[in-house]
Amino acid sequence: MDLQQRIRLMSRLASFEREEEPDFESCIFHASTPKGKVPILKLMQTTMCDKNCVYCAFRRDREETVRMALKPEEVAKGFMELYRAGKVKGLFLSSGIFGNPEFTMERMIDSAKILREKYGFRGYIHLKLMPGASLQTVEEAVRVASRVSINLETSKEERLKQIAKGKSILKDMLQKIEYVDRLIRERSDKSQITQMMVGVGEEKDREIIKAVDFLNRRFKLSRVYFSAFFPVPGTPLENRAPENPIREHRLYQIDFLIREYQFGAEDFEKILRDGNLPLDKDPKTAWAEANPHLFPVELNTADYETLIRVPGIGKKTAKELIRRRKEKRISSPIDLKGIRNLHKILRFTLLNGRSFYQPIMYS
Ligand code: SF4
Q: How far apart are the first and last CA of the chain?
């Protein structure tokens, strides 16, 4: 197998084998970076792993997994071939933990160093931090990478123990997130994210929302990623039903509302049903419906913070509304020409004391 074939295989494996025979293009993902979306190659340094996380395609006991390892020079060389061909602009390097986590992490850092120092690559490199690696090695990873991440996987220590024995949120992961936070807080060229799985355990959205709220208040995270559980053949959870991707989508909306719109976990208590978010409507609309005493909002007088809590009004729209009402009192929908989500906005607002909302009637 030549290097490009091996790179391609490792990249396919890094996508957790969602597809049987993906073509080359499917190995390329679009990642959000501080400089916008970029096509990246998602690669594993090795598919060998000593751990046995119940959901994972690379778990030690899974016989079907092809076990391979790339040398740091191979990662760098293979990536540069694709980069020079214009196929990718960045690298997301993950790995199974084989032997000492420190050793695994060092090999990943070596791959990034070769890219930076030998090939002069200045673009996007995302390194997954290995649970169990030392803080000194984490610091080295932060130095060479544009972004680092450590996956919390779940919201509670006892749940993690059930699905990923040997990992610890409290003793290891949070410590690393905190340490990275200190290193990058004042840096605009570095970022950190984390990821949580959804539906792998019995966790409710309430738990996840509280964790997201805590993480966003405490640390400078670019975002919390969510991954809806899907069963991997040959793992203990192979017969479990996949999680509804809409649940993942609703949690992304929650993370956005907490991070960008100053919502807190307590705001969503009223909309939870048996601890979970409603799937049939977005959380902001559900929150507004659950708080009728706060609506309708007068568009001519509401302050910015109140406006951005109105369903359908984002930050840009709130600023535009404030600009328009300075020029002229908003009295009818004609004064809102060009404003997006108008029907939704009219449902929760008054224009000069009058409601213009007309429910859509379905025959
Ligand atoms: S440590 Fe990572 S690669 Fe290894 S089994 Fe767990 S999730 Fe999979």
A: 62
> Whole-angstrom Cα distance, residue 176 to residue 37?
26
Distance of CA 105 from the midpoint of ligand 1 (Å): 13
Any atom of ligand 1 within 6 Å of the Cβ of 59:
yes
User: Quick one: average pLDDT of 189-197?
Assistant: 95
**Is 138's C-beta closer than 6 angstroms to any atom of ligand 1?**
no
Residue 179, pLDDT > 90, answer yes
Q: At what angle do helices 174-184 and 135-144 cross, to 10 degrees?
A: 40
pLDDT of residue 33: 60
Q: Three-state DSSP class for 77?
A: helix
Considering only CA atoms, which of 147, 45, 26, 32 is closest in space to residue 87? 26
**Over 70: is that where the pLDDT of 362 sits?**
no
Q: How far is the CA of 54 from the centre of ligand 1 (A)?
A: 9
Separation of CA 109 and ligand 1 centre (Å): 18
163 lines ligand 1 (CB under 6 A): no
Q: Record the tokens describing residue 331, joined without a space.
A: 């009295």
Q: State the pLDDT at residue 256.
A: 96
> Distance between CA atoms of 159 and 203, rounded to whole angstroms?
8
Q: Is 8 in the pocket of ligand 1 (CB under 6 A)?
A: no
Q: Is the CB of 57 under 6 A from ligand 1?
A: no
* Helix/strand/coil percent split, the chain, to 5: 45, 15, 45
Q: How far is CA 115 from CA 8, 42, 70, 162, 189, in A?
A: 18, 15, 14, 38, 17
Nearest one of 291, 298, 296 to 330, comparing CA atoms: 298
Q: What is the pLDDT of residue 337?
A: 96
CA dihedral sign, ordered 164, 167, 171, 174: negative
Dump pLDDT digits (tens) for 126-152: 999 999 999 999 999 999 999 999 999
| Contact (Cβ atoms closer than 8 angstroms) between residue 135 and residue 176 | yes
